[in-house]
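Trying the structure run again after the queue cleared.
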Amino acid sequence: MPCAPFGAKEAAERKYHACLRRRQGIRLSPLPKPNALVWLLLSASVIGLDQITKAVVRHALVPYMPHEVIPHVLNWTLAFNRGAAFSFLSDSSGWQVWLFGILAVVVCIGLIVWLARTPRADWRTALPVALVIGGALGNLIDRLVHGQVTDFIQVYWHAWSWPAFNVADSAITVGAVILIAFGLLGGHASRTPQQ
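Done. Tokens:
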């Protein structure tokens, strides 16, 4: 029996409302559940902070000249990296810029799809994924605009030195560590002890 009103106005309204009551609880077109795409605002903040700090250090610092911030621990040292982490492939002819650019785009698309499928309240997934997206896109902007990534944070202890990095690298690392930690430990925290 169709649910469209027909005949006399009152009879049609009664039939229509009766039909709606029968179908109560059945949604023909459910509203979408709120997803975690709002966390992309955090990604945008990471990108903004990364690009601002890189612009400031490119303007204020002389390349490869350390500026001591905390003695024996932290320097600001402007450095450039055409490769990946730890200058991997930095001596190549330039094709690596495109390789890492395409890789960043593919990974970010995958992570954005993951965010779209993640419930908004699931911050344990959304927070680290948003950090990784922001960091990856921050470095991608550098590769596309400058052909290299600007690094400036140098952590060291006397003769030992960690390769220079930037805000985007920090966001990627922190996001990956949090994602792994929640992945390994998160499941155990939600279980209730069995009697």
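The chain has two domains: 1-31, 36-190. Worth checking whether this holds up in the mutant runs.
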